[in-house]
Amino acid sequence: MSGPSLASDTPTPEDRQTHEKTIAPTILPAMPSQEETAESDAYQAGVIRKAMLRHSLGLRDVGVLILSLLAVFYTLYFAADIVLPFVFAMVVNLLMIGPMRFLHGRLHIPKPISALLLIIAMFLLVVCIGTAISVPAAAWLTKVPQSLPALQQKLAFLQGPIDSLQRGYMRVVALMSNGGHHHVSAATAAAQSASNGAETLRVWGSSFLIGTRAFMGEFFTMLLMLFFLMTEGDSLLRRIVEIMPTYSDKRRLVQITTQIERNVSLYLATITIMNILVGLLNLLQCWLTGMPNPLLWGVLAFLLNYVPIIGPLTGVVVYFCVALISFPSFLMALLPPSIYLCIHILEGETITPMLLAKRFTLNPVLVMASLLFWDWMWGIGGAFLSVPMLAVFKIFCDHIEGLSPIGHVLGGPVRPRSLRTLGPEVTPGPTP
Q: What is the reported pTM?
């Protein structure tokens, strides 16, 4: 695989002017005109075509690349206890850039003290939220087994189809286990199901306690790493820029870090504010509809909204189950999850995309794929980090010539004017 020569990396004045037009829509807050956007699209398409012509991969290169990716993912999977707190610290550091600049730049508070104040404030916030919701959450966990008979009574109209499915399932199990000679009655199956449900709840409760202990250990590791990133992150970046071999490499690294800082920090701040509003609205609707412990469900809506698609769907199911336990009729139980779904559609499909569309967009298919992959890789922590990591990866790809086609694929929906032109024809540059 041949790469571009170092001489070709030195930007000419024309290249700098054209490149500034290209990155302006994503870095600068000013809105681009139609002519500038068309020139940017044409230039980007030309860069992508040039990169694909110059960086052709052979079969051996593809094999080495696949093996390298598998080795990286294998390491990330088994080193999750070490890597995950560091990634969380880097993402939270992006969220803390604005408050850190206010304390250090405006109020002239030294960096270590500013970082310590922000970390203490975040820790107190987490402790207060955890304390406020832990008691009602524990009460609901103990209340669930006693509420099962009431749930069965309210869902009595579904008993017939459920019994039919259960009888068919037990018949299939009997045929597969003992060749059809083992008969399991419906009463025995119901008793086994109830005992399995109670055992599942006990196992889930113990797993929750173990997971809480592990979470606290990773949380303190994240706070320690976050402190050093907030105090010494700029000096570390400066050292990395100094060792870059060419001016073009230094400039590209500064552009990447600047765009990550502005775009990802804006994304995190925007969704955090929107999630707080979603949590407050759901707290209000739970209080108005008469659901018990509205603070618990408002905080749950706030947290679940960080996970795209799957989080709000989980919230709808949880709200429906809680309302089914709390309200006397089935129709009344449909009201809180319906309001929850309307709030999510208004926020997730209208307001937040309108606020973030001018900053960066990601392909919804790849957002969902990234969510599922990182949830499998790192669990709920990976689901929280999937979108920020995908956004950071896209910014890297957009500024590295060999990866620009991948960055183009990761982008959001194609605008109609991009279909009329694919950019000017380019020829591959000389290879060393």
A: 0.68
